[in-house]
Design a protein that fits this description.
439 residues, alpha/beta, N-utilizing Substance Protein B Homolog, Chain A, Alpha-Beta Plaits, Rossmann fold, 49% helix
Length: 439
């Protein structure tokens, strides 16, 4: 029988060996484990996200009792040790239970001799877990982020906010649903709650379109998705698209459209009398975008495969609104993608910052006089935020920073032309948003 900790160890192994995304790997594993009840699914999820959040620290604690070093261990054995250590240090699972389960799993996977080694190591880890206090556990979360990331967060935020952001993944975040029409949100909360009484549904905090769901399982199995009544989209991403301020009859360009969630919000806003064009460097993503918009009864006027770092491709003319949702380090999504902290480097940050400046500068050429550009990244780092804004203004002085116009955005940003969404303050992923008007 598949157990939550076995699923977690398998996901950690895939994240390490195949560079898989934890969320996708976990979803696949849970999809196969149809016999697991909601409680065990929640436990598997906590084990995956929790272990990844503090994996460097856990590995260091385990390594103290592994003379030949953690790197010499088989990846599967290493994953089982890390999951067991997470249970011991952060979940306070009794040592006999956490150790015995891990040892049995290692025995099944690698034999009796390796299981005996795992048993000896984990007995000593369990004793260490008993000896540390809460302050040391809290420090472990901060210490598990790479030094460059901790420094970058402290440059962008206060030291307290940097620590709070890194600590915001203590609970697995809600799944956010975006209803197509704000006036239908309350009705859909009632319908979804009736369909999944074991789950919890609430209105979002900052997006008028958002419903937050906990314990609902795979959202696409709920009523309304196949009919195009709603989509799955993180609440901060919803606000980012609403921040564009697209209006009935206007034209909009989604310069980095991806799978089309933000494109859908723009298309709904401009209506039948307006037009939205969507761009992405990946033709495959544009194909998925078309399918997603069709499910919602929407369509883009045109789609363009564009690499903005080399030019504007086939994009022509000017638009009332341009959205640049640029590729970034994803530091703002750590609570959903903790593996980012294990993979991103300062070189990535430097490369992505250059890419962001190039995209924003070239897409900015397609803003009409009096029109606006909104720049968004799911990062909170200064290098991907204020530094890009400064570079864009230097490259295109006709683009002037300007306050946001949408009421729901102003409720968060006030009169500022740029602001951050922080997970520990508003409950969304972390974002940086900036707005410009072309004079």
């Amino acid at each position: 029988m598949t157990r939550p900790r076995d699923i977690a160890a398998h996901v950690l192994t895939r994240v390490e060996k195949q560079k898989a995304f934890a969320a996708a790997a976990l979803e696949a594993e849970l999809g196969r484990a149809v016999q697991l009840d909601a409680r065990d699914r929640a436990l598997a999820t906590e084990l995956v996200y929790g272990s990844l959040r503090v994996q460097p620290w856990l590995a260091g604690e385990i390594a103290a009792f592994v003379p030949r070093g953690m790197d010499r261990l088989d990846a599967t054995v290493r994953a089982h040790l890390i999951v067991a250590a997470y249970q011991l240090f952060f979940m306070r699972v009794p040592a006999f239970a956490a150790v015995n389960e891990a040892v049995n799993a290692v025995r099944s996977a690698r034999g009796t001799r390796v299981a005996a080694f795992a048993n000896a190591v984990l007995r000593r880890v369990a004793a260490r877990a008993e000896a540390i206090g809460e302050a040391e556990r809290e420090e472990a979360v901060f210490a598990s982020a790479p030094a460059w990331m901790r420094a970058a967060l402290e440059r962008a935020l206060s030291a307290a906010d940097a620590r709070a952001l890194l600590g915001s993944g203590g609970e697995v975040p809600a799944v956010a649903i975006r209803v197509e029409r704000a006036e239908e949100r309350t009705a859909w909360i009632d319908k979804l709650q009736a369909a999944a009484p074991q789950a919890r549904f609430e209105a979002g905090r900052i997006s008028p379109l958002a419903i937050l769901a906990w314990g609902a399982g795979k959202p696409q199995r709920l009523p309304g998705w196949s009919e195009g009544a709603w989509s799955v989209q993180e609440e901060g991403a919803q606000l980012a698209a609403l921040a564009v301020g697209a209006r009935e009859g206007s034209t909009a360009l989604d310069a980095c459209a991806g799978r089309g969630n933000k494109t859908a919000i723009l298309a709904r806003a401009v209506g039948a009398t307006g037009a939205v064009d969507a761009c992405d460097s990946s033709p495959a993503k544009l194909e998925r975008l078309g399918s997603e918009l069709s499910r919602l009864g929407l369509a883009a006027r045109s789609t363009f495969a564009v690499d903005w770092t080399v030019g504007s491709g086939d994009v022509r003319g000017e638009y009332d609104n341009v959205l640049v949702d640029a590729p970034c380090t994803g530091v703002g999504t750590l609570r959903r993608r903790p593996e980012i902290a294990l993979r991103r480097t300062t070189a990535d940050l430097e490369t992505l910052t250059r890419t962001q400046i190039a995209i924003a500068t070239r897409a900015g050429a397609h803003v009409r006089s009096g029109g606006s550009l909104v720049y968004v990244v799911c990062s909170v780092l200064r290098e991907e935020g204020e530094d890009v804004v400064d570079a864009l203004v230097r490259a295109r002085p006709e683009l002037v920073p300007a306050p946001f116009e949408v009421a729901e955005v102003r409720a968060v940003a006030g009169d500022a032309p740029a602001f951050r969404l922080l997970p520990h303050l508003v409950g969304t992923d972390g974002y940086f948003l900036a707005r410009f008007v072309r004079r």
